[in-house]
Amino acid sequence: MKRFRPDRRRFLKLSAASLGSGLTLGICWSGLNAAATNATEDFQPNAWLSIDKQGLATLYVAESEMGQGVYTALPMLIAEELEADWRLIRVEHASLDPSYGFQGTGGSRSVRKAWKILREAGAIARHLLISAAAQQWGVERDTCFARMSRVIHRTSGRSLSYAELVERASQLPLPDSVALKQADEYTLIGNPLPRMDLAGKIDGSAVFGIDVRRPGQLYASIRQSPVFGGRVKSFNAQAVKELPGVVDCFALEEGVVVVARSTWQAFQAREALRIDWSEGTQPGLDNAQVLKQLSTALESSAGKTILQRGDPSTEPEPQGRRIERDYSLPFQAHMTPEPMNCTVQIEGQQVRIWAPTQSPTSARSSAIEALRSLGGDWALASDDALQQRIEINTTLLGGGFGRRILQDYVTQGVKIAARFKQPVQLVWPRDEDLQHDYYHPFTLHKMSGVLDEQGLPRVWRHRIAGLKADHYGADELPYDIPQVKVELNRLDTPVPIGPWRSVTHHYHAFAIEHFFDELARAGGQDPLQLRLKLLTQPRLRQVLEIAAESAGWDHPDKHRQLGCAVHSGFGSHVAEIVELRASDRQLRVAKVTCVVDCGQVINPDTLKAQMEGSIVFGLSAALKSPITLDRGRVTQSNFHDYPILRFHETPDIEVIIVPSTQDPGGAGEPGVPPLAPALANALLAAQGTAGGGLPVVW
Amino acid sequence: MTTTLNINGASISVDVDPQTPLLWVLRDTLGLTGSKYSCGIGMCGSCRVLLDQRVVSACRLRTADAAGHAILTIEGLSASAANHPLLQAWESLQVPQCGYCQSGQIITAYALLQVHPHPTDQQIDEAMSGVLCRCGSYPRIKAAIQQAVSSASRQEPVK
Predict the structure, then answer these.
(1) For position A32, what pLDDT does the model report?
(2) Higher pLDDT, residue A243 or A33
(3) HSE (CB half, 13 Å, CA atoms) of A87?
(4) Over 60: is that where the pLDDT of A412 sits?
(5) What are the residue ranges of helices labelled H in A579-632?
(6) At residue A22, does pLDDT exceed 50?
(7) Phi and psi dihedrals of A692, rounded to 5?
(8) What is the pLDDT of residues B67-104, one digit of tens each?
(9) How far apart are CA A123 and CA A137, in angstroms?
(10) How many Å is the Cα radius of gyration of chain A?
(11) Would strands A43-46 and A275-278 be described as parallel, antiparallel, or unpaired?
């Protein structure tokens, strides 16, 4: 693979802050000076693209590809403004370089971060290519335009290909500003272009982290403490070292590592480990204790107010019928199909890492920390020096869902490989992966509301207690209710907690949207009509109206029960309607209708796939087994006791995309939060009760 | 100990413990990494290969038991049947997301169509329920199988 060579380029240095905030034209790009370009090189006006003398454009993607389609959507942004012929495009994963700011993929942010920057990157290149052609012809540049990797002279019809212009364009100074296209001028954005990463994913040649094979590679596995925070006291090193293929067996603080000649031999040796553990600070931790911790917090502390409307100290609370509900939502695991793994080769002072990571920047920080822990020269070197010595190769990711934002497997990979001259691939077996996740947290929600005589909600109270829980998704209430108070108790825990697809929005949206239905039904109102009446966010109202129409909400049918939910998050607005049908006297999820408004859509087919995937992911969480704790351990170990939705359980899914030219919102996560409450609401419609949280059971 | 295997039409001798699951011979010994490890207990289907036309989980099949049978992996299937309507449907309907489970999905769907060229919905459900997809590509897998069936029917000679 052709490597990106930062030292030979003249890149705009973007700070992480400027990447996140959006750039102002003519300021940030003006730091570039292309005049010094070596004429033998490709045309490389910035870090995001280069065009070679055959006219082939290489577009660099600095986000991790985990199925969400960034290898296609981000190049589309550049190519749109570059006026590139899509057939003359290739995509490369950007190396880890300060030009790209903090490299981390999460929060459904890829397109939002890139929206302005990548279009500007393409527009700058287009500007220079047009200038080069105008110069060559001796005409005014505004008599020329670019299309399909050519510059055309409007009046004479003459044209030059980008290949012919690369050399001259490389000599030109950067423009002070560039104009971006209007939405009605787009030729790529908004079209369902085929994904750039699919050929290898169909013929089996795609390389995920676990598929990395280096000459002389060794294979490692690990058994970490079953109890959170437990440490190795002693283990049967000698017996394990004598097993077939085993090269070494040693302890890290958190567990015991075996290194062997094949993955299977490492797994077998891991099974043969007999380890005596110290059991951490809370060896007895179980689900009942967690629930008690959360309920006690809600009884003893008001928590932090994260949303308030009306002032209870001056306005008396409206009188009426009070409705109260408690919801508990369990731990969830990521269950990425590719388990945690990392391949590391340390030769002298050079550290090469291949990792299926959502953040190569964080992976490098973890690697530095791991190297420092080794002592010696590693501990003495400066951060800058260590950064120079570390190469991170981001592979394809076999699922991410937030898990691979954490880099524990990289830390371990570096510590293990430091003992060997050969490259070492660490692979966690499935039970290791499931029992050492960073879990979606357990949360408890105490809801109460007051209905007036017309059955309209006048008071809304949402009290949250959650392990390392955060406020996003609960700090807004899209309904016109006069008295609102939302309070959050964020509690500490020894259980590792991390981001999981849609993060905090998942649990907050469940509590809000399910309780809304309970209030509506208690007040004798149709929950969808009441939403339309009270929704204050017009885009959210519109997606719900379209969903209602499409799902046939106003056409009652005794064989089916519908439930709806809406949620805004990650810059997007989604409504979902779940349809339950009875077959063989059993209710089943027959259909999910999803309407999404995420602003300007880049690739509608990918967006549709993300919504389908979000619904399947949401159904697994809502219907299947949660993660439970017992004696300080995670009870589940594999797909038999932590099942996910299977093919035959998948409902029909209809996705409707609302056309929009507003700035893009996220796509990977916003489809998840409405699913579980819509399902619980359908069950409420079917049987008048839906239990007290997740999983939804009937 | 040497075991001779017939993989993707080629006879290959490997020197491994015959108890080793075929998956690790494919991935670690032969570098055929298209078959994926995910559960190790035959529950997810990501490692599925064909053994004499029959779908098996390579993580549960001992190398000794694979000897003497024709083994087809995703690499063999895509090389020998690149124009198969199933692979074309997978491409045209843009089925994979992260892609990790897709070799197991494709192998399983291919085996289904070998036995049932015109499968019923129930036959599709039964065959495909054994392969998990965390990204949720199921609706597209179903559509791709149906498209492959109808395009194969169109290509059959008119009698």
Answers:
(1) 38
(2) A243
(3) 3
(4) yes
(5) 604-623
(6) no
(7) -125, 40
(8) 999 999 999 999 999 899 999 999 999 999 999 999 99
(9) 21
(10) 28
(11) unpaired
Are residues B128 and B140 in contact, defined by beta-carbon separation less than 8 angstroms? no
Contact B20 A264 (CB under 8 A): yes
Q: Looking at A309-313, A642-646, A650-654, which range is the least confident one?
A: A309-313
Q: Report the pLDDT value the prediction gives residue B157, as an integer from 0 to 100.
A: 55
Cα gap A42→A92, rounded to integer Å: 15
Strand partners, A424: A218, A344
pLDDT tens string A154-212: 999 999 999 999 999 999 999 999 999 999 999 999 999 999 999 999 999 999 999 99
Say if the Cβ atoms of B98 and A213 lie within 8 Å.
no
Cβ A672 vs Cβ A124: under 8 Å = no
pLDDT value, residue B156:
62
For residue A669, what is the nearest residue in chain B, using CA coordinates? B135
Give the β-pairing of A560-569 and A255-260. unpaired
DSSP A523: T
Q: Read off the pLDDT of each residue in A291-314 and give the average, rounded to a whole number.
A: 93
Given CB atoms, is B57 within the 8 Å cutoff of chain A?
A: no
Mutation for testing the A interface, residue in B19, B134, B145 having most A CBs under 10 Å? B134
Model confidence at A585, pLDDT cuts 50, 70, 90, reads confident
Continuous H helices in B41-137: 63-66, 74-80, 85-92, 102-115, 121-128
Q: Indicate the helix (H) or strand (E) that contains B41.
A: none
Report the alpha-carbon distance of residue A606 to residue A64 in Å, rounded. Answer: 15
CA A302-A303-A306 angle, to 5 degrees, is: 115
Contacts A204 to B, Cβ<8 Å: 32-35, 73-75, 77-78, 103
CB pairs < 8 Å spanning A and B: 176
Task: Return the residue of B nearest to A501 by Cα.
Answer: B135
Look at the block and give the residue holding tokens 């890139």.
Answer: A114
User: Side chain identity at A692, as an amino acid letter?
Assistant: G
Residue at B43: amino acid letter? M
Residues 122-151 of B with CB under 8 A from A: 125-126, 128-129, 131-142
Torsion sign, CA atoms A109, A114, A117, A120: negative
Query: Do B100 and A648 make contact, defined as CB atoms within 8 angstroms?
Result: no
pLDDT tens, residue by residue, A655-669: 999 999 999 999 999
Cβ–Cβ < 8 Å for A278, A230: yes
- Using alpha carbons, select from A281, A277, A280 the residue that is nearest to residue A233: A277
Which amino acid appears at position A303 of this protein?
Answer: G
Written as one string, the DSSP assignment of A528-557 is HHHHHHHB--HHHHHHHHHHHHHHTTTS--
Residues near A5 by beta carbon (within 8 Å), at least 6 away in sequence: none
Neighbours of A400 (CB within 10 A): 27
Looking at every residue in chain A, the average pLDDT score rounds to: 93
Strand A275-278 relative to strand A231-235, pairing: antiparallel
Nearest CA in chain B to A214: B31
**Do the chains contact at A430 and B74, CB–CB below 8 Å?**
no
- CA-to-CA separations, A439 to A332, A335, A497, A558, B68, in angstroms, rounded: 6, 10, 5, 39, 45
- Measured between beta carbons, which residues in chain B are less than 8 angstroms from residue A205? 34, 75
Contact across the interface for B128 and A336, Cβ inside 8 Å: no
pLDDT given for residue A28 in this prediction: 36
Sign of CA dihedral A18, A22, A28, A33: positive
Q: Cα–Cα distance between A196 and A632 in angstroms, integer? A: 44
Report which residue type is found at A300. Answer: S
Amino acid at A412: Q
Report, as an integer, the average pLDDT of A612-630: 97
